[in-house]
Queue: 2 jobs
Job 1
Amino acid sequence: MRGNACVTVGWDIGGVSTKAARLVYHQRRIKTLQTADQYFEIWKGKERLPSVLRTLSKALGPADAMAVTMTAELSDVFPTKTHGVRYVVRCVRKAFPDLPIYGLDVDGGFLDLRRPLKDPLSLAATNWLATAMLLARSRPNCLLVDIGSTTTDIIPILEGRIVARGRSDTDRLLAGELIYTGVLRTPVSAITAVLPLGHARCPVASEYFAISADVYRILGRLEPHDYSCSTPDGRGKSQAAARRRLVRMVCADAKDFSEREVIGMARFVHETQRAQIVEAMRRVVRWHRRRTLPVIATGLGSFLARDCARTLGWPVENIAVSLGRGASHHTPPVGAAYLLAEWLTER
Amino acid sequence: MRGNACVTVGWDIGGVSTKAARLVYHQRRIKTLQTADQYFEIWKGKERLPSVLRTLSKALGPADAMAVTMTAELSDVFPTKTHGVRYVVRCVRKAFPDLPIYGLDVDGGFLDLRRPLKDPLSLAATNWLATAMLLARSRPNCLLVDIGSTTTDIIPILEGRIVARGRSDTDRLLAGELIYTGVLRTPVSAITAVLPLGHARCPVASEYFAISADVYRILGRLEPHDYSCSTPDGRGKSQAAARRRLVRMVCADAKDFSEREVIGMARFVHETQRAQIVEAMRRVVRWHRRRTLPVIATGLGSFLARDCARTLGWPVENIAVSLGRGASHHTPPVGAAYLLAEWLTER
């Protein structure tokens, strides 16, 4: 903290991937921004978390202070969410014993993580808040639609205030502000109960045969390097491999259908997922007695968020326009780092 | 084969469990019947299949011949179902090199597995056929409802003939004769998109947090030893542990709800699953221009099949009444063993 300058690292510690952003902050602006992430399924070895954190931190460089958001506490590797939050906080302190570290809480404040935690749940699932608070600085009236690997956040911002009804995951599910659907790891059977076969609709197998990443690979909306999770069958990420997985949802082999038919199935899943998100966007905006809001599309699935906005006929903008390219897939850690820098230099 | 007597072993080689039945057959009747099974997830180490087969066979005792049905070929450990069938057949031959072994085909005939396979797919997913053919011997007019760990078979039998419209899994899904829902491993998110919270309906997380076995443990319909698959979180099979898993579907911890509320959630999932099966039962029977058929309830989920019959007001009978207690959870291997014994002694 040198006057109004500082270097902060923000974290988004999730159940399947951990993301970090490093900001050089100077005179209320981002001077430089770097991001890094690592695919790390916490239930496959939670004791490796400190080393994952250290690796990412090393890749980014030194910092004056760190800000933590997380969603990993929901993983069932922890008996309760409270256990989860405590574990993640312990790991962060272990990885960076000499740094000031803060956790973003559900009210948008920072807690000093070197002090004993009074209410661990106030640190649960605040990554969406980091994004929304950052966005509210530049876009006082908008609808944030952040589509990630398994979840979609739909956050209304009015007159510079985050007016989301829910703060906890459960309340956000109830409000339609959190939808458990995303563009990578969502099982196809959680998006649709049927797939089109000719003029019929065939019920799908409720097996972990294909995921949304397969659908968007088939449709050419994701490149192989975007498919950053494991494939359900452990095979490749080519379009042909994705088609093989999708047809297994109706207990079939790829040779049973033409390529065009399989693309038709993928399109059907995409349209079903889009309709679900569109409906939630309508509901969230209506609740605030608005008919429309400009949509800020972000996350790995920003392409889908843009599709949804177009379906609704609402204006749409990519968050990258406001924050620069690197930020758009890493908005929660960028948000956390920015908010911390602001807080440290202005308090 | 001593005149009209023989000893046969029938197999049902599935993706998560392998079941066997040994029959001493004499003068067109079952003299003694033993069954055995092993929980074996084939995608976790398919090379262990021959040893699983040998272990189960040793537990049952020697046989004159064996009959194979399977569903394991659908597992995505195999690139195609054809590969899957060939692999399973190779394993059976490897495990029992000196025995006559036959595969039940989709037309209800037996193929000698010591000869080269011309059409491997004709051996895919025939376990339901073994059950239905066996049942048709004693119940010429009925609806077989076999509810297992992940699937439900609804098979109409009229005038002693199996009048199912589908033979392949895909065609059976289309006809409503195969439903991908069961009482153990079906993810709760594949049964229902919402859970009741007070007067509201909360969308569920599409994560592998809780399965149907948790629902039926909570409702006291399954005992811990019936919960024969792994738990989603690797923890225990008590009702308390099952409740913890179910509430995680709405991103909550057990302490957030009363026990009564969680039982209400479980009941809701049960009713949703029952409604799905009831609808398919109606549809299958209607297609044959009947209003009702006596229901034969079998499988690990025969309790649910009986619930469904009661909901419809149709007469219901447990298959155990016809075949004896041991048979009811192992009808496909019992059917395969019986049909083979009949075929060997009468041809």
Job 2
Amino acid sequence: MISIVLENIHRYNLITKGDNVVIGLSGGPDSMALLYCLYEIQKELDFNIVAAHVNHGVRGEDALIDQLFTEDVCNRLKIPYHTINVDMNKYGKEKGITAEEAGRELRYGFFRNLLKDLGGGKIAVAHNKNDQAETLLMRIMRGTGIDGLKGMEFKSGDIIRPILNISRDEIEKFIKTNDIETVLDKTNLFPIYSRNKVRLELIPYIEKNFNSNIIEALWRLSQTSSLDVEFLDDYCEKKFKLMVKEIQDDCIIIDGDLFGSEQKGIKQRLLRMFVLKLTGSLQGFTEQHIVLMLDLFTELVTGKQINLPLGLTARVSYDELIIERERSFKYEGFEYKLGMGENYFKDLNLKFKLSLIDNYDGFKMGKDRKYFDFNKIRGNLYIRNRKFGDVFVPLGMVGSKKIKDYFIDKKIPRDKRDRIPLLVDGEDIIWIIGYGISDRYKIDKDTTKILMIEYKYTT
Amino acid sequence: MISIVLENIHRYNLITKGDNVVIGLSGGPDSMALLYCLYEIQKELDFNIVAAHVNHGVRGEDALIDQLFTEDVCNRLKIPYHTINVDMNKYGKEKGITAEEAGRELRYGFFRNLLKDLGGGKIAVAHNKNDQAETLLMRIMRGTGIDGLKGMEFKSGDIIRPILNISRDEIEKFIKTNDIETVLDKTNLFPIYSRNKVRLELIPYIEKNFNSNIIEALWRLSQTSSLDVEFLDDYCEKKFKLMVKEIQDDCIIIDGDLFGSEQKGIKQRLLRMFVLKLTGSLQGFTEQHIVLMLDLFTELVTGKQINLPLGLTARVSYDELIIERERSFKYEGFEYKLGMGENYFKDLNLKFKLSLIDNYDGFKMGKDRKYFDFNKIRGNLYIRNRKFGDVFVPLGMVGSKKIKDYFIDKKIPRDKRDRIPLLVDGEDIIWIIGYGISDRYKIDKDTTKILMIEYKYTT
């Protein structure tokens, strides 16, 4: 068993030299076997073991015995030992979650606090092959796709599972062979929790009636699913990089043609990926929401919009698919029409003066005074703030630049960007007030009529 | 229900105009609902329904009642009716398979015979959403990867399943609403077969203890798995086309670098695909065989070979991965050294005469006499039969051609190809005896020494 654990540690890069490893130690066979394995391996591989025991406050005297037992073991092995007393039932009721979930939250909270004090490291838990089988069966029964079938992983975040591919039988044998003392967690013996029901009723029923090797069969399913999911995720990540046109904190714009060329299963996976990239979560998303998004992005009706959980909206704009998150602070925006002569916008504390001049000499260009080719202007003039997707041709450039990138280059803070007035006509941005003018409206050798615009902040 | 079935028919292209559709009609609710649905849809879509009933010979009087009932229904609806009496228990014992498998073989054999008489068509079976759930659970319990989780398909080969996405509850409702008479297959009521055990014990247990919507949850798993598998298979098919260097009836040669650049899950899927392409089956192949092949093709040790089921061997040759099937007739092969002057090879009933000539005039080129530039020959001369991968530069050509393709062009039968003598030197094929010589050894303006070779068959 030790050699398997050592191979796992190497293959999945679970522990590196100098790591702090907090072991969740209940005192039962699984965690005791884990403790002894890591204790042996520690002699070869230089890392620090810390044991952590949680008394969940539900088994009275029994729990106290476990607590004392684990403390005693650690003292004998000279392993740093930490323990905590909680009331998982009470905590669950307070937070409106099941006692199981409450126990989990409290345990990992305790482990992470310990890690924080140690300056970081790993949490080693004693999930084994049987736990994996139980997890798969529970997920299958509750409803899952192949992503759920990969089950628990040897490593996920700061949690490591060094004995994940070892069965309960093998653990029992190891415990017996090495004469390791353990306690019995009696809560495991009653089918009150779903997991216990799976362990004590469902799996024995399947073993008796269908397949005595069900644990192995489910393990293989988890491993092949894991490989398939890994590939599909990598594939989607590569495709995402090709099809993303813009990604911000609160918005993703996708090339509709590239998205449309993928197969249905990949499209659904990509949609979940978009949501995850925006929000870090799929909370509240059901299959139905993914189907709605898929329909929207397949029909490609410009302007149509759907509302989604997590404050997201999805819409189509020509060949672009846009998923946006409601901004925590939403700037209202403004748009005012400009006429010749004096204009005063009180909201903006801003005055504009527009004059047609025919005297080509004596230009007094300045930050607050610019000259434009009047005949290049199409339609009315407006002062407004930026809209999503605005582009601009800076003076001296040929191609257009995104306003967003222009602002970034000019190091304008994010919260100010929505308030900078833009002078626009019916087609284009002419002048970013306080910054540059557009190359498209500049005076050239063919200019016959010149528009001079001056502005002034009134405060 | 009829509209759902009609949509299935369109979406999955189950039935086209003029099709012959043989319905497997047990007389139970599922197949009776299928019959009535298709009977209605037939009025819109022009196709031919034929009913087929199998009396499996295990339920005596009851089975006879079902047989008469289905015949009567079809007579009333004016649907052509065919029936057969078999003994599935006896047949199963004879063939060493379970009674369930025997019943299946006999049923589909009967349906296919009917189709043959009708000149082709489809077999419609009444598998529904509950059957799909049962199939998934059985596969999960027996052990499967995600390929098994896609479950049964709406269409697979000549079999169509028009009510696959309809639950047993919906079927019962349809039967009741439309006042359709059915019989009850009592063999479904006893948990003697695995499937009945799943239906009557396992699913009710899960519905009661874990998820009352387990049928739906498993249906969604089958649908998402199906999409993922479809994508993975398409991906592998595309990659296969890029990495296959040669594919014959009994051999596949793969570019090792391209294979090596894929992820592990894809590699395993590709290996199964190679085997399927060679043999049409994965019978006898376990995960262990795939792992062995994967290791071989990862280590890339030239010359190492492993034996596999179905008479396959896998080996590595430099950057090529080769999977070969044992030929039913394996020709032993030959190789003889040639010297100047007379040579006689008794085994081949073949005489050769080699002479150096300095008289450039009076060439008497013939099928049995050729002239070569002696200085172009490297090393010794041999007579041997072809080896796998042999190439040849036919007279007048610049590039080389595979000997195999040359033989195909010359319309030489497969069983003779291994026996045609080839004149070779240490590097190349010089002359395919009875056919052409190599461009590389021909006499040209720089030739100073000419080798004349004549041959004669002694029988």
